[in-house]
Amino acid sequence: MIRFEQVGKVYPDGTSAVDGLTFEVEKGELVTLVGPSGCGKTTTMMMVNRLIEPTSGRILVDGEDISTVDPVRLRRRIGYVIQQVGLFPHRTVLDNTATVPALVGWKRDRARRRAAELLDLVGLDPKTYGPRYPSQLSGGERQRVGVARALAADPPVLLMDEPFGAVDPVVRERLQNEFLKLQSTVRKTVLLVTHDIEEAVRMGDRIAVYGKGRIEQYDRPGAVLGTPATPYVAQFVGADRGLKRLSVTAIEPEDLEEPPTAHVGEPARAAAERLTGLGARWAVVLNEEGDLHGWVAADALHGAGDGGTVGGLARRMDAWVPVGAPLKQAFSEMLQHDAGWVAVLDGARFLGVLTPAKLHEALRRSVDADARGVGRGEVSFDSVADA
Ligand SMILES: Nc1ncnc2c1ncn2[C@@H]1O[C@H](COP(=O)(O)OP(=O)(O)OP(=O)(O)O)[C@@H](O)[C@H]1O
């Protein structure tokens, strides 16, 4: 989809920004370009929409050498999101979002309808936010408008330069998650520039780690963390790269334990006896549909009088994550709620719990899979126990 062939850029003052860049981004893939300041990430990106022209090599988009494509026509196919967002201060959020469709000749009504759809998609209610001006938004909201605007004309390619750089870490993580969710539905071909290795491994299907003006390693996040190609990459990803793996390893159903369960309507006495028989100190409480209701302590069940039900003694389960979430999120929930385990849900349905021991196993399996260069799902569970 985007192909760099021996691309180089020397600025007029003689600065060589990048040299011999050769890599390919597949259709629907999100590639992060990561590296320290001045290593050539932005130059790389701006060559794709011809805001900067390479001095050697060529870039192909969809098989077409872009030096032969009219820049204006090219940019219609390429959405661009930058850190400073660059919204027009005197236009409403709705009109800002409708800018590109209007530019490419859509009728005003159609452009605005599309803009409203896009605002909705990035989590901003068009009725509330559409009429506002950019100065009436928070930094995170402005950033979302930037993303909506870039997507408005439905370009197949999206360039994002430090798109979440201007907001605090909490908002940043939320925006990253929202964008990943969005990307899983819109499947754009994305180049995302960041200097933050954590962001690069979280967001990227593949990562290009830049040294000065060149790519030191181009691979899946797990491989970059697991087997850094050069000492430079190892230093850049940091000594705590094992921890960073928590961000890129998803919780899968086979990671889960099945704890004792009890049902909302079940008599407390019966549940208490069952837990004693199992030697369990607590149980997960489910409703009739198998959805999570909460949890209950064995002590509480034992203390209940006749006629008490499990539902009456159940407590809310605060520590839970959706299946497929990264291990880091599960770990963070455990710490935040001082819990020894987290519930894992598929929608509302209870799938099981993740314990610290299982979390460790999942991490080991992910290391194992990357060491062998195979997908995680193809590694048998036994191989971890043997490792
Ligand atoms: N117009 C220019 N003229 C001369 N040199 C430039 C120009 N623009 C960028 N450079 C230089 O090219 C190199 C790469 O810059 P670039 O902006 O691509 O890096 P970057 O990795 O995006 O950095 P940052 O993370 O700080 O934005 C740097 O040494 C920079 O000083």
UniProtKB/TrEMBL annotation:
SMART domains attached to this UniProt entry: AAA (SM00382)
Keyword Transport carried by entry: yes
Coiled-coil blocks: none
Source organism: Streptomyces salyersiae
Family per record: Belongs to the ABC transporter superfamily.
Pfam families (alphabetical): ABC_tran, CBS
Domain ABC transporter: 2-237
Example of a GO MF term: ATP binding
Alphabetical UniProt keywords: ATP-binding, Nucleotide-binding, Transport
Protein name, per record: ATP-binding cassette domain-containing protein
Lineage top rank: taxon: Bacteria
Record has S-adenosyl-L-methionine as a keyword: no
Gene3D superfamilies xref list: P-loop containing nucleotide triphosphate hydrolases
